[in-house]
Fold this sequence. Notes:
It contains 63 helices and three strands. The chain is mainly α. The chain has a three-stranded parallel β-sheet, with helices on one face. Helix 27 runs parallel beside helix 29 and helix 41 (792-808) packs parallel to helix 44. It is elongated, with a radius of gyration of 47 Å. The chain starts with a helix and ends with a helix. The C terminus is likely disordered.
Amino acid sequence: MNYNVISEGFRRLQFTDIPQDQIELVTSSEFTDSPNFILEFSSTTNQLIIQVIDEIKKPSIGGEDRDTIWDVLNDCGISHPCVQVWIYHVLYTGLLASATFDEKYRCLLAAQIYFLLLKQPGSSGSLFYHLILFEKSCSALKMSASVDVESSNKKKKKSAPAASQQHRMTLSQEIEIGTDNADEVNLTRDQITRILSSLPSFLTDICHLLEVYSLKDKQTSLTQLVEALVEILKHHGQTASTAQNSDPIVTLSELVVKAFRLVVNKKHGAITQLVHLMFRLLMTTITMKAATKCGSGCVSKVFIHRAEVALHGVSLICEDHGDMVHQTTRTLMQNVIGQSPDRSDFRHQTGLFVANFIYKMPVLWYADFVSWTARLANDVKIGNRVGAVVLIGHLLHQSERRADSEKEISSELEQCLSHKFLLKVIINKIKDIAPTVRSKSLLVLAEVMDKKLILSSVFNALFKKSSADPITPLPTNQDSFLISEACVGGLISLLCERSSDLKLTVRRSSLLAIKSTICSHSAPPNSKFLVALGNGCRDPMLSVRKCAIQCATDVLDAHSNIREVREMWVQGVFTRVEDNEASVQEKTLILMEEKILEGIISSNPEKKILSWDLLNFLSTEKGNKLRVYLQKAIRQWNQQKKITKSLVQNVVRGLDNADQKVSAWMTLRMMTLYHSDPITACHIIENWKSSNCDQSLISLQVDMICSVGQVAQHLNSTDKKVVLERLATSIETYTCPIHLINHTCEAIEKFHQAIHDNDKDSTTSMMKWTEKVLNTTDRWMHDIMTSSSYDNDLLVTHLYTVGDLAQRHPDKVPNSLLFSVQALLTNPNTVDQTASNSQVLSQPLSQFRSGEIPSSIRAHTIFNLGRICFRNKKLAKKCVPAIARELEICENESVRNNVLIVLTDLCVIETQLVDPFLSDMATCLGDESAVIRKHAVVLISSLLRREFIKWKGTLLFKFLHAICDTNSDIRTLSRYCLLDQLLRGQSAGDLFFRNFIACLFYFNDYNGHSVHRFKKSEREKRLFNLSGTSGLEKRMEIYEFLLENMIDEHRINLTMKLCEDVLGAVVDKVIPLNKETQHILTDCLAVLCCREIRLKCLKTKEDGDDDVIMSTQVERGAALKNEINQKIISQVVKENLVQNIVPIIIGLKNMLVEIHSPLVKNVMLYLKEVMQEYRTEVQAILASDKQLASEIEFDLKRFDREEQEREEQMRRRNVENVPPMAATPRTVTKHCFNAHELTCYTAADHVTPQTPMRATPNIPFSPHNPATATTASARRNWPMNIEGIVRSARKTLGNIERPLTPARQPTTVITLTAPSVPESSPSNRNIPPHPATPTQETYESSNEARAASTPCADKNGEITFLAKDISAIISPTAAKPKKKKRLLLLPHPEECPLPAPWDVTSPSPHRASRIRRQYARSHDTTNST
């Protein structure tokens, strides 16, 4: 160190030019005010500062008398306050946002000078430290760390904050950012590089400072320094240094880590506190929270590397200080797991960091942390559970650790070291309530299975059902991964259960787990696994379908030799050729091409065998229905020019192989449509001529005939004539099977076209041959009409021949042949015997009646007559009414089925002709035959989808009847057709909303409404009858289906319509209340109470949704929109409730109470639901009528008590095995009314004045006595004139009031009992006497002693009812109350003695009211007496 150079440098840097008064001013303000003096620096100033810094770093030259640099500066007239002020001026100027590059760079150099001088020894060294200067120097270090070349380039292009970040900024932040951006000076790439190049030197000086200078008493400065170091790590965790020095440390990362280790030293404070400070500041770097601001869900490698550097520093600190920092390190790792951003990639990386870190820790520490992780997996917060599952997944990738023999470890912690313990946690979390946890656990299990990380012994122990279950012994190889058969069942049930989960992420993860389990050969491809994969290919969610298709293909690759696997793949993947999503179609075509086309032409034997095995399955009866998907795939491949000559020739070679022959003919039929050649044609004809196929293989025969016809153009003339003669002979001799007639005629027509040069000649030749065949058939049909015996099979062959040729050339069909065919349709047994002779003769085909025709012949006749009508409109107009009539009168299933098919096809050609019979076709949706019902769903859906018919009349109601069909396949099919094919999106909700009220009347078979009236035939009434109690379950299933597919707007409007059009109509007596309408009212109330009518936006979120972090702007915008909609809809619902619903419900309740209807219970159920959800709004409605509000409150409480007693009564009956009495209403759940359990109660369910009670033995009443429970419940249902009792009690109280002396008069409670009916009354012989309530001398007058039913608006506080659970006998030893008060204690209105039963045969409708008035008068008389 050359002091002369240093002193000269300080003078040139203008240290001596600072005025003394400014030095005193700045130092007296403790460096908080801005400097008021100006220092003029030249362009060489920064270079001069660098020279001074380099000189200060050098060691002192030998022989110098002066010991420190401060002595040199003092001799030059430069005091340490002067140096401080100069450094403060430079730091202050360089930290401004408007600072230039030179000022910023000079600021960094000044901070470096400050740290260098701070560690210099000398008398003034201790005075040189200042908190503000240290802070400014650290800020300069942060400033230099925040500059970046890439960010600088982005700033030039970026004029405003990104749209995805604008919502995060507050107004003040936007103003601040705008101001900074306006004044900020953009740095060039070279300038930024120059600043960054000085950082290694600066960090080296900081490390030297930490070695020699203590910051023990300067914790604020120490914190600021650590923050600056962390800031460097955040921005330049992997930037290489360009400084010229001999130090082997050449990266900023290593310099920062070294500084971290130097900070954690006793010289700077307590180790524990320093480590806590360090780890707290490193938390954001390790968790990579800065990467979340990038917008993408993936983590950049830059952030990953910086987190690894931070963890490396943490690891070195743990090595340096051992057990002293273990607890703090444990806390750090726990916070890393808990504070990780809630994104999949972030949790994966943080989990990997923690797993790798803790694996290096001591065994005891490791076991304790694993134990904590297992407890974290059961935490309340979903994010913590997900983090624990991810961490355990990474721990399973590591080898098991063993307990050290030197250190003792408890058995509980020792088990945490095993993979069995970790896997058990994962298995338990598969059943977690949160879908995110379930999905992540399944993914971990899938990865464990896929990589074979766990031995079979672990799975065998986990899925072992009981100790008695035998476990298959492991093979000799202890590394076996095959799970024993005894434990496979538990794994299968677990994964298959998750494959049908409600959440798509869980379903997708379960499919991956199933795939990994099968492909890793840990478990065989069980049928349940294969069913789950097949169902996944048909999942409604796109991502699940894509995943299932790929998983099924992977399973096929692993087990291609298993037939069930091949069948699953074909059934699951082939159907996706017609998927709604183009991406799924493309993926499916690629997989099919790989497995089929490439396999056929491949030289690999395994691939070739697999391809033919897949095609062979399509040739079987089970896979025959899937051939259409292969045909569509081949059509797509032909458009892509993938059906080549070599491919077709490879398929032709399969004709010579007996195992591939059937599938080869099937494939050739599809491929020869697009590609053929003479060689292929000759080979096909030769095989066809020499083939002797089994007549039972119908599909094979059809494939052969079709293939022969499609290669006709490539044959020579001789072969054409030979083949044509052979085909024509089979038709002319009527030896061709009926299933081949159509294909044979088509092949004959193609050969006519191939033989003749032009279309005219070929058409003429075909017409001549057709006329010849039809004339032969005409003569044969004429003969059988006059004979009594004929061959039924031959007749069917003639019918199919006529039907096919009539479609090709309708003009060549003789009229006599048409009459003969029509004559076969008429059967004398089907003619209505009640019809007159003129009516019978007016039937279109009545003149052709002959002997009885078998139903099978009539079925074939209808089918072929319909084919003839397709090209003959005149005949169609004549025959369609007669054909449609068969749906009503014919009992044969085949006939009705063929009629439905014919009418459907005719509807496409002549819609107006079939339209009058659409109702009869729709009636087939409820036909006695399941086959006809299924066909009706498919055929009517096709007409609706192509818009040949509309939703009019009762078609919708009949279609809805199919969704509750007794056949599960029909139910599923009808729901699919209705929602996925016919009504998509909001259109379904609109249609269901418009017709919901009509559904109530239609399915309850009520035609008394002025608007909703339906014409029904007797057959329709019989097939679609859902009225009454027996059809309640199906009606509710339909209602719930309609509600589930409505939006919230529809539900709001529907609630209002139900109240106005049904409940309001009953109150206004527009709809009379009788046996026919009581079920409508019951259904309406059940719908209003059911869970499905509740608004989706107002329902509580499912578990797992609250903790999901919405990472994208779209998700946040959707959440905000939903919140606004929820508030708006909630307000609309409340207004609708206040204005429309509650008044109607109260009016209906009063009306039903007045007529003693058992439907009061149903109204109370709905009123209870309304009060539970909208109590505040209802109370606001009833604020003007407090008495009405009190009555409703009292009725609801009484209703709840009755329900509880009914439950208790049913429980006692079940315990005592006593058969129940009359039907008892079922219980209702606490939070939601179960509409399925609602029934229309008869008089036996609800005691009314018109229904006398059965005799009961004379047993004293007790609320806990089972023998009197039924009686008490029945008494409560009797209407009581409560107001009359209260008025009478008040009158009595007024009569007995007299002056009392408080000193000698105790509190007197006067108890009144309702007058009993005289025992001599003949109508009271079977009613038990009610014991009179004794007068009670003492009773507490506190509010708790009053009954809950006492109206709050009652101004007279001396009158109350006895609570039901208060005993009628008061103990004489009861303590007297301190405060004396007179009370009038009435028996509870529900426990008054029963009056005599009324005469139910009385014709007078007002007798009940007269008896009540007489009862009230007698009561008043008794009280006055």
